[in-house]
Design goal:
alpha+beta
Length: 227
């Protein structure tokens, strides 16, 4: 029987470091999502600002009716670490009773918020604290929250329970540069007719299931072309 060589001490540490670097280099989705998100931020700098109330950054849609918010520091986020906040009026006009939404939703001052916690870590920054640097923290610490949506060629942040914020991998080749995505199921259960929500699109979207098989699911979308 061939003897198995055992590696320990400095040799093992070096091997593990090389393996970690290799895995990081192979994470094309994580790396490319940072590059494409940076291009979105550069495209609409006037729509990106600090959000002191939620302890993070805010990217406001061109119509001002919805925004994506991401945390600067998971240890200090008052509610969620990534979330959508949007105008409740068109949903209420389409039959929604906000008081019937699950506890994962917040309804206040005519707005609805939905999102998720990513962790409780005290995030540390090696350079300037910027919107992009805070997004990079998601890739670094919570990589599983970053998705690639092949049907639309989008990257996205998973906000939990089928809600997402997505952006185009290549804005020059896509007419949906950013998309705010809601799961219609809890809204329908709370009285909403999703086909009647003004300013939003109720449609079927192709996604991959847990086994990588393409399936169609219902979504409520608000897409924007930023060019």
């Amino acid at each position: 029987m061939k003897e198995i060589t055992k590696i320990s001490g400095p040799g093992l540490a070096a091997l593990l470091t090389l393996a970690a670097i290799s895995c990081e280099q192979l994470d094309v989705v994580g790396t490319d999502s940072v590059k494409s998100f940076d291009k979105v931020l550069q495209q609409i700098p006037q729509s990106v600002s600090p959000d002191e109330m939620n302890g993070g950054w805010s990217l406001v849609a061109p119509d001002k009716e919805v925004r994506f918010i991401w945390s600067k520091n998971y240890a200090e986020s008052p509610l969620h670490d990534v979330m959508l906040e949007f105008d409740a009026a068109p949903f209420i006009a389409a039959g929604l009773d906000p008081d019937r939404l699950p506890e994962t939703f917040a309804f206040y001052d005519g707005m609805i918020m939905v999102g998720t916690k990513l962790g409780t870590e005290q995030l540390k920054y090696s350079g300037e604290l910027t919107p992009l640097a805070s997004y990079e923290q998601i890739v670094k610490h919570k990589r599983s929250a970053i998705d690639y949506h092949g049907a639309l060629d989008h990257y996205g942040v998973n906000l939990g329970e089928g809600n997402l914020f997505e952006w185009a991998k290549d804005m020059s080749a896509n007419d949906k540069d950013i998309v705010f995505v809601l799961n219609p199921e809890p809204f329908i259960a709370a009285g909403l007719d999703p086909s009647r929500v003004e300013g939003w699109v109720f449609t079927k979207v192709t996604v991959d299931d847990a086994k990588g098989k393409p399936i169609q699911v219902d979504k409520i979308l608000k897409p924007f072309d930023l060019h």
